[in-house]
Design a protein that fits this description.
Elements: H1 2-8, E1 13-14, H2 37-50, E2 60-66, H3 69-82, E3 88-94, H4 96-105, E4 110-111, H5 123-126, H6 143-153, H7 158-175, E5 182-183, E6 194-195, E7 212-213
Parallel strand pairs: 2-3, 2-4
Antiparallel strand pairs: 1-5, 6-7
Helix pairs in contact: 6-7
């Protein structure tokens, strides 16, 4: 919430899971969302200590992001939020082409990225974490996750398919190859008589053939 309210400030929805809620799919709930920041920090400190990190052996990360004032502000904010935990973050700003090459080749420790769904269905985003998927930037590979997505693709019953997607997303959140920050929103100045704007398009793509004006 601090990142969306104080840093980006564009009314984005804080992301406690990878997928936003969408028609036919309720967003996953997270116990972390109900905890206050001191509780979350204490849990993070305990996990770092359990992993063997301390003041003598701090966790050192390099955060890569593409050139943008907003991305820079977010990177600085993340680094400052992790500093009380003893995590040392080096910021690595890259121009777009070099940033894309670094992500595509896996030449990063932690990288700012983005994910869109081309259609309104959980697989549009979840598929990007399958083993060897061309859109998989994270390097994540779990046959159990892939199997759940395949089961979902082979399931005609909508409720059963949704349950499989929830299992797959929960596995992704448990293993955390990506850290969701916020869900994109779309801000537009719209003539009140304009009709036909998309309401179920995750990317907000507008087909002009669907637009028309009406006083009704």
């Amino acid at each position: 919430h601090l990142l969306t309210e104080k840093v980006s400030g564009q009314g984005e929805q804080a992301a406690w899971s990878l997928l936003p809620g969408m028609p036919g799919y309720e967003a996953l709930s997270s116990p972390l969302a109900l905890q206050d920041q001191p509780t979350r920090l204490a849990k993070a400190a305990a996990l770092l200590a359990q992993a063997g990190y301390d003041s003598q052996h701090p966790l050192k990360l390099t955060l890569t992001y593409n050139t943008s004032e907003n991305h820079k502000k977010l990177a600085l904010a993340v680094a400052s939020m992790w500093k009380p935990l003893g995590v040392e973050v080096t910021l690595n700003n890259m121009e777009w082409n070099a940033y894309q090459v670094a992500k595509d080749s896996g030449d990063f420790m932690l990288a700012r990225s983005f994910l869109f769904g081309d259609y309104v269905e959980p697989s549009a985003m979840l598929n990007s974490f399958r083993c060897q998927d061309p859109q998989n930037e994270s390097g994540y590979c779990n046959p159990t996750f892939d199997g759940l997505l395949q089961q979902a693709a082979d399931t005609l019953d909508g409720n059963a398919r949704t349950g499989l997607y929830h299992q797959a997303e929960q596995l992704l959140m448990d293993e955390m190859p990506a850290i969701p920050v916020y869900h994109y929103n779309q801000m537009r100045l719209v003539d009140p008589t304009l009709r036909g704007l998309p309401v179920q398009n995750l990317k907000g793509a507008i087909a002009t053939k669907d637009l028309y004006f009406s006083q009704q």
